[in-house]
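From the pipeline queue, job 12 of 40. The input is one protein chain; the requested action is below.

Action: predict structure.
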Amino acid sequence: NIVFRTASGASVTGSGMIPGGSDYGNKAFGVQLMVNDVVLSNNENMQSYNSANSSPFALSFNASTRGGNLTPAQANYGVDLREIPTENIESIEVIQGIPDAKYGDLTSGLIKVTTTAKASPLRLDASLREGTYQLGLTKGFRLDKDNALTASFDYMNSMSDPRTSLVGYDRISANALWAHNKRQFRNKLSFSFSQNTSKGKRDPDDLDGVIIDVDNKSFSLSNNIRYNFSGVNRKSWFRSISADIGLSYASQFTARRYWLNQGARPYGTATENSVYYAPYTPPSYENQAYADGKPFNVYANISTEGNYVSKSKWSHSYSLGINYRYGDNFGKGRYGTAGQNETMLSVGDSRSGMRDYNYRDNVLATTQYALYIQDNITKMFANKHVLRANIGLRYDIQNSASTFSPRMNTSYQMGKFTIRGGVGLTSKAPSLNQLYTGPRYFDMLLGDYRLPGYYSAAIMQTVVTPGDNSDLSPSRSWKTEIGVDYRFSFATINLTGYYNKLFDGFTTMAVPKVMDKAKVNVSVTGTEIPVFEITGTEKFHYLQNRIVNGYESTDKGLELMASFKRIESLNLVVGFNATYVETTSVKDPSILTVDKPQIIDKNFQYGLYNDTKAKNTMARASFSFDYHLASSGLIIGLRTDHFLVDKKFTNENDIYPVGYIDYNLNQAMISEANRKDQIYQNLFRKRTVEKLSGLGSKTLHNVHLRVTKDFLSGFRLSVYVSNVFNLKPYNEDGYVYTNFTPISFGANISYRF
């Protein structure tokens, strides 16, 4: 997964881990990935196990064991970049700013990948890096002057820790792309299949270790059609029509297994409000939990394009189009063995229980419709200054929620100097996993009676709350940027400043609930199973999580890029880029943190508090040096990374309550002048120390080297070393700085037949 223009992903914990939490999660979720103008969607991924009670960006089915670290592709985090076929890529365009009105369902940025089909020799690629090796085979065919076909096959095997084989990852993929190119009609048809598996093995020295098994298969088919009208009048408004259509289907299976030896314990099984005899787990057993998803996605875009030049030489290149997206999941859902649900420790214990949940029967398809219009305007003035403006308007209906999204990018070029700016609104619809969490089950053990050799009787009460979040609206982001470019004789310098405001983001809030806890009278007669009767009820309060639109963040930063001209005498190309970004995040002020009092208070059931704010600051720079000796077919690349600032500041807003909830679940707010009143002293939270983490005042530097050699026989050999000097940096607190690339060696060899 990837994030753009934010410091939210600056602190990654552990090799290969995805940072959890609403800050990083919302930013990764808002990245759109397209291949040949067809969306790759992860919105239908429901491979999580406790979405009814967890945060929308909680990591599900992840394990860190002695055998390594396994984190399968996660729901709600956007598309895994490993799913992109790389063998026949023609170009990659990354849009971190304001995209054209054609592109929707995004808040962070857009990655556009274009692949091509053309005649090419058979190419064999092999690469090795630490515990990962990869083999690829690619061949392009020229069928006739208008038709070409490219086919590729790829296999990858990776060990989480090269020293063991306990946690591994295998992937195979096959891709085919056919292209038909004529002046009037063009068509590009592509098919891909991929399978990735990860079968965990038990460490004989870690009997309680968690094992994760993953088996995913995916199929996708897409087609791009473009027809240019021939013989149209030069004054005709529209000159071409195009359609981009894609569909994908996947089978995703995830299993979690670990051994439990904790004695027989009761667990809840009811799927409606009831008081009943609960079953027991075996004294020792293998706890197994599964998620079986079958996501299905359809994407279509139809547009017509035209060009117009006015009498005053204003050039317009415009388009009008519609988008359509459909997503569903037909999987068996989540299920497991006895005891997969939360087990009870003792009478009075209460848990948020889990039940089987079938996606096929409970999940409804989501749909998105959009209409957009875009006009790209160019005007050259008499003084040779050039004005460019891309102006668009998009209207989305995402699961019945509508959004108008104006977009504009402008630039004014005055010789070697250019000033540019842009502003636009984008939106991202919630995923199926956020909308359909399944009901929430609250289980309470009322009694546990056991007579060895005769009976075990557990009296359980279950309260069911509908768990689906059909009222979730799309998250939205206002994106603003301004920049200047200047072409010197020796280099081109680009400086960009941006301000992005994300609101209505997805997060979790605690909802106070009350249940009528049953009072039971139990009759015990000899060795017979105890009989109970309900004699009344009493109020019992508890908290329950719910996914809501309540996260806000602001990203503001500067980006500096310099592209230097080739130093001809040395055949050397130098590049430089630097970034500085501040990210502040907070839950919506209307979503207050709910906590129990430090001491039980007869007047206040819960206290209400402003939520914790966070501020991340990150500054980095990088140089690249590429030396090319054409006569020897030699390329030497050197890259330096400089970690200048990395600070994460968290601070409890206030220890004093801003309101409270009484025992009848009535909510009352406290005026600012009275929040420190001693009448609320039981609601005062413990004072927390402001926490600052990251690099502090330290700066760190890293160097990476790659050497590539082309041979006349058709071989190409590339060898690279990350962290050439084997530096092992620590932050000011004495911990290893996890963003620093550790030393690793790799090699790639390819041969063209």
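Job complete. Residues 10-16 have pLDDT under 50 and may be disordered.
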